[in-house]
Each structure stands twice: as C-alpha cells, then as structure tokens.
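Hi support team,

I'm opening this ticket because the web form for multi-chain structure prediction keeps timing out on my end. I have pasted the exact lines I submitted so you can reproduce it. The total is 542 residues across two entries, so I didn't expect it to be a heavy job. Is there a limit I'm missing, or should I split the entries? Thanks in advance, R.K.
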Amino acid sequence: MANICTLTEAIGEFLHDGDTVAMEGFTHLIPHAAAHEMIRQKRRDLTLVRMTPDLIYDQLIGMGCAKRLVFSWGGNPGVGSLHRFRDAVEKGWPHPLEIEEHSHAALANAYVAGASGLPFAVLRGYAGSDLPKHNPRIKFINCPFTGEQLAAVPSLRPDVAVIHAQKADRKGNVLIWGIVGVQKEAVLASKRAIVTVEEVVDSLDADPNACVLPHWVISAVAVVPKGAHPSYAHGYYDRDNRFYTAWDAISRERDSFTAWMERHVLATMDWEAYRKLLSETGGTA
Amino acid sequence: MADYTTSEMMTVAAARMLGNGTVCFVGIGLPSTAANLARLTHAPESVLIYESGPIGTKPNVLPLSIGDGELATTADTVVSTPEIFRYWLQGGRIDVGFLGGAQIDRYANLNTTVIGPYDKPKVRLPGAGGAPEIAAMAGEVLIIMNQNTRAFVDKLDFVTTAGHLDGGDARKRAGLPGKGPTAVITDLCIMRPDAETRELVVTDLHPGVTADQVREKTGWDVRFANDVVETMVPTPNELTVLRALLKRTAEAHGSAS
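Hello R.K., no limit was hit. The queue was backed up. Here is the completed structure from your submission:
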C-alpha cells in the first residue's frame, strides 16, 4: 500500500541527494509542487531526466540542484527559451551542467525499455542526425534477422519518478487521464515513485482500460491541490499561460531569478503558502 | 497594397499543401496554424496528430503548447507518448510531417540544437523534440519558416534533423524511409528540392516578391526554377477563416490579438 503522506515527508523520505530523478508530464500534469519541495529541501547533485525540461527544471537547475540533465527538448512552451537552462549550458551558472541529449522518440523508448526490464531500447531513429556524434550513449546495431541498421539507447532506470495525477483512492491507487504522456512508463521504470494528486477519493470509478497505477508500485502519495500549476490538470483547472509568459522576465537575469525563488519558494513553508503568496503578488513580484 | 500580410500568405500557402484526408503529424507554432487552417478550409477530413498523444484532433483554438487540453478534448483518441512514436510514427502511419525550425540549409536539413560549437554553444536552442524521427518516418515533410539569412544558412552548425543530407540519394543511403522534405514554405516563396540533386530551388514567388528579395534573405546562392510561378493570392475565405481562428486563439489564451 502506498504511503499517503505530506509532500514534505514524501520528498524527505524517498528522494535523496545524488539520485537520478525522472519528473514527467507532457505539458500536462507537470509536478511543480514536488519540484519546489526538492528546492526547499536543498537536494543536490541530482541527475534530472525529462523529455521536456520546462519551468520546473529551469528552477531546479538555476537553484543548483542538478549536476546532469537527460532530455530531448528544453524550452518554455509557447514562449521561448529557458534562461536558467541556457545560462547553465552556455556559461556554467550556477555550476556546469552535464547534458545527455536525445530525441523524443528515443527517450520515450528508453522509458518503455526501463519499465520492461530491458537493458536498452531499439528504434528506427537518429539516422542522418548529428546527435549520435555528441552523445556516446546513442549507438547503432543491426537487426539479427534482416540486417537493418537501427538505433539503440540505454534504458532509463531512475531512482525516483515524480509525477502529478488527478486522483488517488485511500489505498493509494492513482488514476490519470487526458494527455498521459510517459508517466506510467516513468513510474514503472523507476525504483521508487512519488505521486502528487489533486484529491483523494473513496472510489476511483475508473473504466476497465483507464490508466490506473496500482498502489503497490508507488512509494508515496501526497495530496497537493493545484500541484501542477502553472501546468494544468485535465478536469480540474486550465493552463496558466500568463505565468509561462511572466517566467520569461523573472528568469531572464540571475538576480531577478534568485530573488523570486528565495521569496516564493525558499521563504514559504509549503505549496499552500506559496500559492497564497502568489495570489497576493500576482507571481511577478 | 495587398489586403493580407506576408505571414498570412505563408500560412495560406502552407495550408494548401495539405491534401484532404491526409494523416499529418503536426509541429507546434506555424505548422499547427497552417494544418488547422487546411482542416477548416479545403481539408476537413485531414487527420491531425500531435506528439503529445492526440490523434484526429480538431481544436477550436490553436494550442499554445504541444499538449494543451483543447487537443485532448477534441481528439478521436489520446494515446501515450511512447505509443505515438512507436505505433503511429514508426509504424509508418503518417503521410505528412509538418515542421518548423530555427535554421535550414540548401538540402532542407534542420538545426534546432545549437548555434556555435556543441560543447561551447553561443546559443543553446531547445533541441530535437520529435523532429528527427518525424522527418525520417513521415511519407513526406513540409517545412514552414520565416525567411532571413540567420535562418537560411550556407552551413548548419548542427544537423538535428536530416532533410536531404548532402543531396542526391543520400537519404536512401542513410536508411531514411520517407521521401523527406518536399516543400519549404516561407513568407517570400516556396522552394522544392531538385529532382536529381535534391537542392532546394525556388519554384513559386508570393505576389509582389522579387527574385532579388529572396536572394537577399537566403544565406546561400539560391537557385530558381526556369518556370517560377506566382503563388495564388489568399482567397477571401482563407483569410476569413485564418483571422477568425487567430482571433479565437488570442481570446482563449488571454493575449492581445
């Protein structure tokens, strides 16, 4: 049975310095509250894995939590650059960041291979691209039956997966719907899994083919309403496009970024306190 | 004075390339605008697929991100990200990949990774996303980009996504299944690959655009077809539908139109 606890407890118990952490959510259900708690608890030397590093990884990188990033597309969706990610890669601030760069297809396959207990993933990919020249973890193999050349990447086996979902029942079974991305694969590929949810209910009332993660593959479930903001939770709240636009200005300079993070994240006790402050400041102060 | 903008001309010209009934894998931004314009005008039976998982999506407003809820609620079905890339793209079910890019060269190779050296980039761009495999696997690829010398360059710093590589039968030799880019639609013109060399050649000029203007905005010595034609101006219906779509989108996303 999954441990139903506070987010502070979940991160404290199950996510450690030096861990490889996969935080997934394909523009939907992005675990923002969990990222803030990792920053509050000052996790260090993390290897961060994510197909689409966006605001949460910009924040973790800028606050010095990451030593390595495994990714396939890093931007502020619909807005532009991730300034903290760029500053780390281009200028080594706050410290140099190692990167392992892939395509979406390769990382999606690497999660499937991890969840399947296989050492590597095989795909028809990367042909003609310069990525394999710069990433030694992309290799090519030949099909043992036809001889066709195919790409191979190591499976992803993170220490911890962190995701946000719509709801859990009292045992900790988790239901997720809408754009489900690669969350199920990330959870099943990882040794431990932390899930934040909008609410806990008596019964999930899920259809037989719904995407349900059984409680026994999850380490901890924490109830964090609006825990994906400024991303959205289908059926609960919409994407806060204005915050994504505001983040461009907040994160552009090191000083404005650091001041914002200190005030909004380090100086707040938890997500609820952060949300309260944000509603007072409009998020741009 | 034309009663439409160069940006509208580009979007309309790109939308016309998408045939009715086509299964199209859509990139975010300009490709998404053009693909939805096609769906709302001459191609109502086209099937739009986004890499976040929606299949057969019919958004009433354009998505700001690749995974907006609007794409999920208006789709025939929503599948996981691995399924999109494995069953639908790699499985060979996509007719057209519709892409944008930061930089392009004369063989329609795309760079969305870095400006400058990879290990010490001058500008770190977002990266590959789904593009390398979309461009590899789709039956053909359409590219839509604003034309200027920073984007249309003689040599890419990084080939993120293979177009026609170094030309000729290079795609075949590299084992790339699809036909690759068949047209590049810009705010000035349409380019198509030469049948033999696969180098991009200007085949259509948008109304009022001169060959010299295209040369000025291209970072290589760009070639023109012998029989360059003029792009048909946007029809009143195309403009009405496009403007209404953009207006709805601006209102929905809370930004000024």
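A quick check on our side: The CA atoms of residues 87 and 93 of chain B lie 8 Å apart. Let us know if the file doesn't open in your viewer.
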